[in-house]
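assembly run, all chains below
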Amino acid sequence: MARAGLSVVLLERGEFPGAKNIFGGVLYRKQLEDIVPEFWKEKGFPMERHIVEQRIWMMGKESVVTFGHRNEAYKQPYNCFTGLRVKFDQWFADKAVQAGAIPVYQTVATDVIREGSRVVGVKTDRADGDLYANVVVIADGVNSLLGKALGIHKEWRPDEVSLAVKEVIALPKEKIEDRFNLEGDEGVTIEFMGETTLGMAGMGFLYTNKETLSLGVGVMVDQLREKKVKPYALLEAAKQHPMIRKLIQGGETLEYSGHLIPEGGYHSIPPLSGDGWCVVGDAAQLVNFVHREGTNLAMTSGRFAGEAIVEAKGRGDYSRASLQSYDRKIRSSFIEADLKKYKGMHQLLKEQDPELLFDKLPHALNEAAYQLFLVDGLSKAQKQKTAIKLIKDAAGGTVNLLKLGYKGWRAMNG
Amino acid sequence: MLHLIVCIKQVPDSREIRIDPVNNTLIRQGVPSIVNFYDLHGLEEALRIKDEHGARVTVVTMGPPPAEKALKECISLGADEAVLVTDRKFAGADTLATSYVIAKTIRKVEEVWGPADIVFCGKQTLDGDTGQVGPGIACRLDLEQLTYVGKVVRVDPSSRKVTVHRFLEDGIEVVESSMPVLITALKELNKVRRAPLPGMIRAARYKPYIWTTEDFPDLDASKIGLKGSPTIVSKTWVPEVRKINGQAVGGESEREIAGALVEQLWKPVCRKNSGGHREGRESACLREEKLNRPPIGPITAACW
Amino acid sequence: MSESISDKLFTIRYKCDDVSHLIIKERDSCLKCAKKDCNYFCPSDVYEWDKKQKLTTVAFENCIECGTCRIACPYDNIEWVYPKGGYGITYKYG
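ok done. output:
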């Protein structure tokens, strides 16, 4: 918007952009490139490591079944990379400031100002704090108090959000490279599920940064509440798991953090625009939790909103009808397609006993793998039978397993 | 209209400073920079005078280019103009060289925006802690100086008089001075305001004046930067943690705990508890020498 | 490498306001509440039931501003706003 010559104010409640922000740690090249072309060539771009390998771990009590893919082809150009928000957000916000946006930090937008059905600005927590504008882009994150003030979404339910806690753990560069089998700026991501969430619906992650690791665990808030587990105890337990313990050994915790993740998916997306406003990113529940993608949906939705507003400015019309072009851009993009694909997922996770998906099955899988690879005199045919039986039993019989498989397929391809 | 000049410095936030255990130097990396908070109290007082009498407030600082951010903060609070004096040649300055350059800067500010009536400085900086720059400037500019000011009682533009309270170790000194005068500010001076939104927006757009050595043709090169700084840091070290004979007091109720605490505090009786004009400086007396007087009650007789 | 929660919170920079941005709406609701869920789900131990005083204490200075309590309090009893601009937590890494 600033590039197009519009007058833009960038409101941020923290000391600087990124001061209050955390995420798991993976950023995607494509979506950022659409906003800042060839950003990776820039000196001072705050990349941690570009990702050459992604692993998915199913955790047993002291075991893991792993699925992963490493490919040199992810290097040219990078597919995705790890980052730390405090550095990245400042870099990103400076792009906006360089383009002419007016940075106003340490200021909370507390409410929207309305004239009839039109949004004409925001109230802030400063003296003489009313700020008027043709369009307000609501980008106040998962808690989106502005979205609530506007009435576009009610409070999230505890089964629509996850709480993730994270630590940044310092480890020498060489140790990271050795432990994860890396050269130079290469990096690895690991997502893990099973034992580490104590039967709750959730996932953990371990990402490599330059000289730190990002380790986190997230679980659905309703289940966390039910289990009466301290979120940080969950993280501590994950750190003790032998598969993780050995990777982080000797590291020093530099920072602890926590954040909610909107997991409602497609059905939780509120109206995206109206007279004088658009809503983007987490505030609009635009998170693909199956693929841990949030930041790129946020950046892309922000770009779409910006484009739509520039077009609206050209027409001199900031009405709902005019700003609908933002909705259309979202609907015809990967954002809507991806969220739609997994639209049944949330329901599936709600209906299924979380114990089954996040406890019994991962454990059965580990046990099956253990039996399969154990040489103890039993015939291979018997072993295969045992392994299959273990998994079937975990699901409560063949029929249930098939049902689950079918439901899972539907949820992922709705 | 009064012209008030406020001298500030951008310093690392002392709450975040760690000391490198190997080199005994300050680890400045990752430590946020803030406006030295004593300076902010000076600015706030200037702004209060501006609110009451109308005044022009000009902020000056010497430092590297990022100090621009500190000046913008002052603009957001309500300062009219801000000047950054920056040049590699100024680097490495001690208090002597700094006060020389700041004094020159103030002279130049006066040429541009009119003669100064009051110059505000902080009592000291959070990083240097010397408290010498303010008096140094006053001396070079031949200004009256009022150090350790905890309260400005009155500013009278017509009689050109200023009355302040100086908070000294043994009491408060009420002093009147004529303008132009230099005041060094304590944190007791006032509560710093929160910038209003229009101030934030003005600050975001504001570009401070940037002056380099070239803007000061009559500068004596031997008096600036490292060359002009006779101070030598011969050694730095981390002081050993002194053993303090701490004692925990306890009790069943708040009243009992408070009683026990007061009893302990009362033991080292405050010597200067009579005839004082301590006005709100209660904590200082706790440091006074012990007189080995036996604890005496009741609480109401205590020196605070 | 196992740290207590106070060690963890010590890694975050805080600038505390003198008034709480978290407010318990009705003390009675906490009295009625049998499970005291907030004592567990909060990632920075803001809430603690004080048996003697019979009220939930709010250590708002610890708050990492995640919003869980607002959503998960079974009695919807927590008034939750952001700390004043510039106050509260500041991450160093994020």
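Residues 273 and 303 of chain B are 5 Å apart (CA to CA).

Chain B has two domains: 2-223, 254-301.

not gonna interpret more than that til we talk
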